[in-house]
Amino acid sequence: MNWKKKVFENFRLYAVTDLSGDDPRILNQVEAAYRGGADIVQLRSKHLSDASLYRLGLRFRKIADRFRKLFFVNDRLDLALALKADGVHLGQDDLPMEAVRKIVAPGPLFIGRSTHSLEQALDAVREGVDYIGVGPIFKTPTKQHYRPVGTRLIRKVAGRVRIPFVAIGGINSTNIGEVLAAGARRVAVVRAVFGSSDPCAAARELCEAMEAYEE
Q: 52: domain range?
């Protein structure tokens, strides 16, 4: 088993950027997130140009390799391939797996799908994705148009889904216990790490909470 597959199979903390501008400070924050225990960092922005995303992505790729951790891209399969990312995360309205597999064969790129209901989660499993995102669990500004699904959906998914799933949406150090108690073993966060004045400490606190829960 290569190290990237091992990291993916055992990942716990998935840190997602939400870039509104081309701020070079994000590079230090990404390093800090990995240092604090994040296994995956996702490049995500609804505002930056393709050129800016590509330039940043090249730097993200180098940082991830240095820490022997994973680097994913949000939505954009083309950008993920150009950057030699380890994975791409797709939304409900993005390319179906049938189309994805016409572009990239199984193996070199981990494919994730956002899901907001048990039905969508099961559909994504049948579709053949490598992992699913489940949420938004709590209210979050990054998904303003989605009603929070709550921890009840985590319990449903945990009972039916056998591929990796990651809970996402408004999760932080104060409510992660509810998420873990509902059956999640992987969490994705945006503001809890990248909105912190100390991303390394924030990531470490979340990882310690997950480790303590499993003891």
A: 3-90+99-214
Residue 173: predicted pLDDT: 96
Our answer to whether residue 173 is catalytic in this structure is no
Q: Distance between CA atoms of 157 and 164, rounded to whole angstroms? A: 10
Mean per-residue pLDDT for 81-98? Answer: 96
Whether 101 is catalytic: no
CATH number at residue 32: 3.20.20.70
Q: What is the pLDDT of residues 155-166, one digit of tens each?
A: 999 999 999 999
Q: How far is CA 154 from CA 103, 129, 187, in A?
A: 32, 18, 11
**Identified catalytic residue from 4, 143, 186, 204:** 143
pTM given for the model: 0.96
Active site residue 52: no
Task: Count structural domains, the chain.
Answer: 1
